[in-house]
Each structure stands twice: as structure tokens, then as C-alpha cells.
Inverse folding.
């Protein structure tokens, strides 16, 4: 540092030439700043050297072209450096040419090797060999590079010329400025080792210099890893397969392992490590299973419960797999028109004589052979309920409907209903005009009557075949079978017998000794002994099968009815049977369905509420029946209600009064209602205690009414699916009258014991005598001892008097109820 004018300047010591700069600021302030200009050190050259330099280099020696401030000594030094560089340059050019050649060859070799290496990478040894070679070459390269580094810098101009344009990165660090060029020259060694090592130039990569080596270490590691994995073969493949594991709400450990394609032992071990001591047959929840799946590196696909049904694949049948199958025929018609007689007549006529009398074991369906050898399958369950319930359960098994109309009776309500059923199901019809033997038979009236219902029979130039038959004397049976056979030909019914069977339950029962048995009509595929299946909420394994003649069979193809043994429970008519691959699948589906059904029941409250019936009916979307059971106080009201109920039916719903009677609702009534999924309507009657308990247990809904209009209205609303918010009565208590007192001024007061719930002054009351309502009204007084009270609890005695009603007797029951608004939802 040097002091100039007493001011310190920043700069290099000695070589500075200070100058002053006056700076002006606002408000007239000024400031003198001493500025140092940097001056290069001047080296005085030695006379001799100066001459030599001057002679040799015009650029360097010519003082006029000499950069300002360069001393002779400096100049001399530079000149010498230049000379030396020039000398080396010649020598280096040759060396470079040789190197370049060598590098080209090297590159070629390297490329070949890389290619070869890639080919050979399959085997680890060769990969390692390649590595060894590469390392050797890299060592050579490193040596060469070190040599180059030791040599003097190349003049800048030479770089772009001598080096291929493909290696510009290598050329860029070289500066044409000599002054700057010296620095890299001094740092060459360090430069190559460190600073440039991070940057990989194409050149470096190709010639395998230090930079390239750095990178190849990582690449090499990866390659080695790859080679190692490949050498290990199958293991690599296994590790690579990441499976999507379908995970239901709960899964059996072995099934989980199966789905992940992992060893069960490994899964169990893994669970144990998580602190869960389970065996392979135990079920774990989805959350635990998810952890396991993740641990094994697979993807979890959470499936909803309903997805378990996906195993039952709806296979699109290839037309070439399809083979003709017999038609399935259902006989429908009005009651007493001869459905049963006709079915029996066909069976008896077509079954080999001798067997005829012995057919005690027919199974709800049978097959007959026509004259021309065509097989026909008849469902032996006449009536619409069977047809509808089958359809409502997803089993549309019927191909042809035979509509039986008695020639002496013509078209009746259930005939129309049958027509509607068939039309709704899109099933073709054949009209069997029965009882043609009757003297008062008028088949043409039947034909014209049918016109009104858009059934135009062939005799009326329509499309629907009509046959005159007599179930009693067998007239026209062959013609009827022919007509069926013709119709089935038109339908071209086909099924694939070579697939997992699907069928529908026609009927099922719990047989003492044989366990649950189901008559199944195979729809497609072939059901074989030993097949595992799910049917509705049940599952099983076909232990044995019997055909319609009671013979043991090993298999049943499309349209063949068989009785199946080996179920774990009794399914319901209309349930669909599907053969599954594994027992686990069958069980899982059955369990899922059972739970879903249970949830549905629970959600709907009671098992047989109006709402649920209607919800079912709605889901069905076809004509359905709303069964009810009616108990009334007197025969007159029962009859009036039944008549009103019959009028309610429309195209979609028909109200069917299963049973109507007079008197209290009994346990028998509840049993019947439960079996038929019907609610009980009590008109001015009540259920007795045991019936009430059973109803609660079984979830049978009991509704009490005191106005016919209300009852009819409710049923109507239910039938049309328009159950609106309603006022529902809630029974809050019952009291039994022990004694009756006459109190002057008040009238008769009933001395009661509250037997159930509470008695509330403000609530509505009914007087029941033998479970029949004899009065409904409000309380005038509710007394506990001498005091007027608002409520009396169960087990306590109280005095009650009715408003405007006096006829109270000991042993009468007082029902205390409140009204609450219930919003009903049907969706
Ligand atoms: P379903 O209610 O439709 O099953 O009718 P049924 O088969 O039970 O028959 C009702 C009544 O009609 C029975 O008494 C039969 O004997 C009678 N019946 C059925 N078919 C004929 C027939 O072709 N001719 C005569 N005369 N009576 C018949």
C-alpha cells in the first residue's frame, strides 16, 4: 500500500498511479476520492535476450506492438515461452496426430466393445471381463491424459482446427489470450483431475478420460447389478412382478397369499412380525391385509364387497360354442282353468307306461319328448307367483308360456294377468283352450275375448298359436306339444354346454335325512357332480343329482332340471346357481349376499314392512303382489276391507289378502304373515301379547287402524309406491282395568294398573276388550291417589276416566298412544 496525498488508495502495492476524482453530492457536498490506476510491472529486458526476441518474434519483439507497460524481462520471458511452445507445438502436432489416430482406433474398438458388451451382458462374467478391459483402457487413457497435461498448452488457434467440431466442449476451455492461457497451463493437472471432472463432455465420454471414468463407475454399478440380477434368473422376474391385489373387506390369509402369488408361510411370518398371530386359515381385515400387500411390494386394489360377485363372469358366448337346447315352458292361466290337470296330462301321456303310476318323486319340472323327438322342459309350478318370483330373483328361465283358458269360462282376471306377465317378460305365448270336452265349451269366445287383450291367435289371423285341448281326455295334447316345438324352433334356443354351469332354483326344501335339496334348472353350461357352486345366499358342492324321474345322474346340461344335494342351506325358488372355481369364492359370495340381505332387512327395519315390500316390488319393476293379512273386529268390516283391497290393484301391483278374519291378532297370524312376507292389518283389533312378541322377533309389521279409509289409503299408497309422510301411532303404554268406581260429578273411573310403558294424560287412549277396540278417545282424568298427574309409570296404579265415554269394565285394557310423523322413504 502507498500513501498518496495522505489518502489511502486501494490497489496493488508500488504499481499504482493515484489520481483524484471529485464527487459532488446534493446540498453542495463534495468528496475527493483518490483513484488508483493499476499499472503493470515493467521488467527491463536483458539486452541480449531482447535482440534475440526481437529477431525471432515481430509480434513480441516489436516495441511498437508490445503491450504497454511490459518490461523487457517480461517480454523476454514470454518470448521464450512462445518459442518453447512453438517448438513443442511441432513435436506435439505429431504426437497429437498419432494420439488422434490411436484415439480413433480406440473409439472404434470401444464402440465394438460396447456393442459386444451389450450383447454379452446376459452373462455376468463377460460383463466383468468387459469391465476389466475398460478399466485397463481407462488406465491407458489416464496415462495419456497425464502426458498431455504435462506438455505445454496448445496455442488457441490450433484447438478448433485440430480437434473435430464434434468435440467443442474440449476446445472451449482453451483461450486464445496468452495471458489467460498460462493459468490453465499451470493448473493443467489439477484442472483435469478435479475441476472438469464433474462435467462430462462428449469427448471425455468417448475417450474415456477422467470425467468418463467417474460416470462409468455408476453405470458400471448399474450394469453389474443388472447382470447379477439376470444371472440369478427367475428371482429377478419374480421381484419385478408387482401385482394388483384385489382386497375385499376381509380376506383369509391363504387367499391373500394366493392373490399376491407369495408363499403363505412368508405372509404368515410377516403378519407375526406385525404382532398378529394368525394361521393361514384365519381371516384378517382389509387394513391389515393392506399393510401386508404393501410390505410385499404389491398394489392394493380395494374392492367393494359387491365385487366378489365378479368371479361369476358373464361370459359372452361365442356363437360356435352354442348348441340347441330344449325350451322351458311355464303353464299359466286363471285358477281352475286346468293348469295342473294339463301339466299332469302331458306328463302322464308322455312318460313311459309303467312308470306313470310310480312318479311320486317328480321334482317341480319335467322333460317330455314329442313325436318328432324334441325334448321339452315343463316347469311344474303353475301360477303367476312362481313365474314372477323367479323373474324378480333374476331367473328368467321360461322360454314359452302356455296360457290355459277354459273354453267354458273364457278370459278371466288372472288370464289377463298371465298375458301381462308374459308380455312383460317378453316371452312368446301359446294359447291352450282347455276343457274343450265340455258341452258348454265355446273356444271362439275365448279367441275373441283374447283380442281385447291384444292377443290375436292364428285362428283370428294373428301370430299367436292356439290349440284346443282337453286335459281330462287328452284331446289335442300332441298338437299342443307340436305347437310348442314349432315355437321353440322359431326361438332358436341355444346354450353353451361346455362352461361353468348357471341355473335357477325352481324349488328348494329341507329334506329330513338328505338335508337341503334344490331343484335346479340348468340354464347354460353343464352342472356336474363335485361342482362347487353358490346359489343365492347359500353355497355347496354337488354331492349327488337326481333327474325328474328320480334317477341318479352325474351331469345335467342346459334346460335339464335336476335335484341337487350338497347345499349348506336351503335357497329360495328363483335363486340363481353359479358354479365357481373354488370353495372360497363360493363361500365369499354367499356370505356377502347373506350380509347384504341382512343389512337390507336391518335397514328397512322390519322384515315385512309395507315399505320393504314395495321397495322389492319396485326393484322388480314388473307386476308384483302386495300380500297383506287382515284381522278386523267384525265380519262386516273385514269383508268391506277385502273388497276395497281387491279394487286397489293396477298394472303393476295387486293387493292380495292372504287371509282375513275376525278377532285379535294371534301368533298363528304372525306366522302366516312371516312366511308370506306380509304385513298384518289390524282393524280395530290388537295383537295379543304372544303375537306381539313373535311379531317383534320376526320383524313382522302390525298396523292398527280404526278407520277403513285410513287402511285403504295406506295400502293404496304403498301399492302405488307413494308412501308420503304419515302420522304413525306409537304405543307408549298399556293399563289394565282392575276395578271400576262411580264418582259423582266425574262418572265412571277405572282403577288401573299400568302394565307396560307409561300412561300419559295428554296421550290418546283406546279401550280394548278381548283385544278388540271398543272406544278411542282422550282421557278426562289421570289420577295417582288423589292427585291429578301428567304421567304414571309402569307397575303403578292409577285412576283413569275417558272423555265422553263411560262403558269401562274390569279386565278391559287401556291402550295409550301418541302420534308421531314419520317420513317414509322408498328409495
Ligand atoms: P288349475 O287351478 O288351473 O290348476 O286347474 P286344475 O287343473 O286344478 O283344474 C280345475 C278343475 O278343472 C279340476 O276339477 C279339473 O278336473 C277340471 N278340468 C281341468 N281340465 C279339464 C278339461 O280339459 N276338461 C274338463 N271337463 N275338466 C277339466
Amino acid at each position: 500500500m502507498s500513501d498518496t496525498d495522505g489518502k489511502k488508495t486501494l490497489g496493488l502495492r508500488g504499481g499504482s498511479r493515484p489520481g483524484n476524482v471529485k464527487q459532488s453530492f446534493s446540498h453542495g457536498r463534495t468528496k475527493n476520492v483518490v483513484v488508483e490506476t493499476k499499472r503493470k510491472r515493467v521488467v527491463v529486458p536483458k539486452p541480449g535476450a531482447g535482440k534475440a526476441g526481437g529477431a525471432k518474434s515481430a509480434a513480441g519483439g516489436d516495441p511498437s506492438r508490445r503491450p504497454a507497460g511490459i518490461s523487457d524481462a517480461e517480454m523476454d520471458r514470454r518470448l521464450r515461452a512462445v518459442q518453447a511452445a512453438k517448438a513443442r507445438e511441432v513435436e506435439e502436432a505429431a504426437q497429437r496426430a498419432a494420439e488422434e489416430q490411436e484415439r480413433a482406433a480406440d473409439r472404434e474398438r470401444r464402440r465394438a466393445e460396447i456393442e459386444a458388451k451389450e450383447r454379452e451382458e446376459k452373462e455376468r462374467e463377460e460383463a466383468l471381463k468387459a469391465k476389466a478391459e475398460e478399466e485397463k483402457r481407462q488406465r491407458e487413457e489416464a496415462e495419456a491424459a497425464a502426458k498431455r497435461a504435462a506438455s505445454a498448452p496448445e496455442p488457441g488457434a490450433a484447438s478448433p482446427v485440430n480437434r473435430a467440431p464434434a468435440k467443442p466442449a474440449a476446445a472451449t476451455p482453451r483461450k486464445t489470450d496468452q495471458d489467460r492461457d498460462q493459468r490453465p497451463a499451470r493448473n493443467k493437472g489439477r484442472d483435469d483431475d478435479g475441476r472438469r471432472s464433474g462435467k462430462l463432455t462428449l469427448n471425455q465420454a468417448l475417450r474415456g478420460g477422467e470425467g468418463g471414468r467417474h460416470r462409468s463407475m455408476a453405470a458400471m454399478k448399474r450394469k453389474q447389478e443388472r447382470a447379477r440380477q439376470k444371472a440369478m434368473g427367475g428371482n429377478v422376474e419374480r421381484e419385478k412382478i408387482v401385482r394388483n391385489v384385489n382386497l375385499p373387506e376381509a380376506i383369509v390369509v391363504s387367499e391373500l397369499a394366493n392373490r399376491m402369488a407369495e408363499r403363505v408361510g412368508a405372509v404368515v411370518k410377516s403378519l407375526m412380525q406385525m404382532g398378529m398371530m394368525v394361521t393361514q386359515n384365519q381371516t384378517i381385515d382389509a387394513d391389515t391385509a393392506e399393510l401386508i400387500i404393501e410390505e410385499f411390494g404389491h398394489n392394493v386394489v380395494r374392492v367393494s364387497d359387491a365385487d366378489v360377485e365378479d368371479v361369476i363372469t358373464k361370459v359372452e358366448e361365442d356363437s360356435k360354442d352354442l348348441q340347441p337346447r330344449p325350451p322351458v315352458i311355464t303353464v299359466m292361466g286363471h285358477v281352475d282353468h286346468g293348469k295342473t290337470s294339463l301339466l299332469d296330462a302331458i306328463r302322464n301321456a308322455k312318460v313311459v307306461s309303467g312308470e306313470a303310476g310310480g312318479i311320486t318323486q317328480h321334482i317341480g319340472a319335467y322333460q317330455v319328448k314329442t313325436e318328432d323327438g324334441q325334448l321339452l322342459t315343463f316347469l311344474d309350478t303353475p301360477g303367476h307367483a312362481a313365474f314372477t318370483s323367479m323373474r324378480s330373483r333374476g331367473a328368467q328361465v321360461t322360454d314359452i308360456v302356455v296360457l290355459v283358458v277354459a273354453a267354458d269360462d273364457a278370459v278371466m282376471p288372472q288370464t289377463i294377468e298371465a298375458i301381462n306377465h308374459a308380455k312383460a317378460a317378453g316371452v312368446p305365448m301359446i294359447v291352450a283352450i282347455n276343457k274343450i270336452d265340455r258341452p258348454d265349451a265355446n273356444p271362439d269366445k275365448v279367441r275373441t275375448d283374447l283380442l281385447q287383450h291384444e292377443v290375436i291367435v292364428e285362428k283370428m289371423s294373428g301370430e299367436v298359436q292356439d290349440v284346443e285341448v282337453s286335459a281330462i281326455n287328452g284331446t289335442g295334447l300332441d298338437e299342443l306339444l307340436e305347437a310348442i316345438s314349432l315355437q321353440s324352433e322359431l326361438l332358436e334356443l341355444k346354450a353353451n354346454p361346455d362352461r361353468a354351469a348357471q341355473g335357477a332354483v325352481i324349488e328348494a326344501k329341507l329334506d329330513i335325512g338328505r338335508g337341503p335339496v334344490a331343484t335346479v334348472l340348468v340354464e347354460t353350461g353343464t352342472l356336474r357332480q363335485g361342482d362347487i357352486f353358490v346359489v343365492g345366499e347359500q353355497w355347496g358342492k354337488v354331492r349327488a343329482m337326481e333327474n325328474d324321474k328320480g334317477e341318479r345322474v352325474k351331469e345335467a346340461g342346459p334346460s335339464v332340471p335336476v335335484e341337487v344335494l350338497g347345499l349348506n342351506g336351503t335357497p329360495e325358488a328363483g335363486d340363481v346357481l353359479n358354479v365357481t372355481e373354488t370353495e372360497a369364492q363360493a363361500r365369499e359370495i354367499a356370505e356377502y349376499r347373506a350380509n347384504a340381505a341382512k343389512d337390507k332387512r336391518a335397514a328397512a327395519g322390519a322384515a315385512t314392512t309395507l315399505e320393504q315390500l314395495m321397495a322389492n316390488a319396485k326393484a322388480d319393476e314388473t307386476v308384483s303382489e302386495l300380500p297383506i293379512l287382515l284381522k278386523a273386529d267384525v265380519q262386516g268390516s273385514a269383508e268391506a276391507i277385502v273388497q276395497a283391497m281387491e279394487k286397489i290393484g293396477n298394472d303393476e301391483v295387486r293387493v292380495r289378502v292372504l287371509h282375513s278374519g275376525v278377532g285379535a291378532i294371534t301368533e298363528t297370524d304372525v306366522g302366516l304373515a312371516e312366511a308370506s312376507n306380509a304385513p298384518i292389518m289390524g282393524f280395530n283389533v290388537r295383537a295379543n301379547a304372544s303375537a306381539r312378541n313373535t311379531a317383534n322377533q320376526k320383524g313382522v309389521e302390525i298396523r292398527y287402524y280404526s278407520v277403513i279409509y285410513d287402511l285403504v289409503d295406506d295400502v293404496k299408497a304403498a301399492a302405488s309406491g307413494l308412501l308420503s309422510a304419515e302420522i304413525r301411532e306409537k304405543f307408549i303404554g298399556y293399563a289394565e282395568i282392575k276395578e271400576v268406581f262411580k264418582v259423582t260429578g266425574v262418572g265412571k273411573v277405572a282403577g288401573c294398573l299400568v302394565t307396560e310403558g307409561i300412561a300419559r294424560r295428554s296421550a290418546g287412549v283406546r279401550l280394548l276388550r278381548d283385544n278388540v277396540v271398543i272406544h278411542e278417545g282422550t282421557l278426562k282424568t289421570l289420577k295417582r291417589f288423589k292427585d291429578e298427574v301428567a304421567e304414571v309409570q309402569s307397575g303403578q296404579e292409577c285412576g283413569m276416566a275417558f272423555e265422553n265415554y263411560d262403558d269401562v269394565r274390569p279386565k278391559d285394557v287401556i291402550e295409550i298412544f301418541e302420534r308421531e310423523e314419520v317420513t317414509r322413504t322408498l328409495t
Summary: The pocket of guanosine-5'-diphosphate is lined by residues 333, 335-341, 382, 434-435, 437-438, 470-472 (CB under 6 Å). The chain has a mean pLDDT of 75.
